[in-house]
C-alpha cells in the first residue's frame, strides 16, 4: 500500500491460497458491502494516512 502512487491505497487483502495481494482505495468503513468473510484471506487497513 505504501508504494502505490496511482491511487490512495486505504486497505489490502492478502489471499493465502493464491498468495496474491489486492490493494483497494476503500475500507470496511467506507464500503462495508465489499468486505467478504474468507478464512483464507487477511484484511489490512492503511493506518499511515492523514
From TrEMBL:
Any one GO BP annotation for this protein: anatomical structure morphogenesis
Superkingdom field: Eukaryota
All residue ranges annotated as the Apple domain in the record: 1-48
InterPro entries named among the record's database cross-references: Celegans_DevNeuronal_Protein, Pan_app
Instruction: Supply the Pfam families for this chain.
Output: PAN_1 (PF00024)
Tell me what this protein is called. Apple domain-containing protein
> Which organism encodes this protein?
Bracon brevicornis
Amino acid at each position: 500500500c505504501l508504494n502505490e502512487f496511482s491511487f490512495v491505497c486505504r486497505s489490502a487483502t492478502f489471499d493465502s491460497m493464491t498468495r496474491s495481494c489486492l490493494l483497494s482505495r476503500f475500507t470496511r468503513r467506507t464500503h462495508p458491502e465489499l468486505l467478504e468473510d474468507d478464512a483464507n484471506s487477511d484484511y489490512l487497513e492503511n493506518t499511515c494516512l492523514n
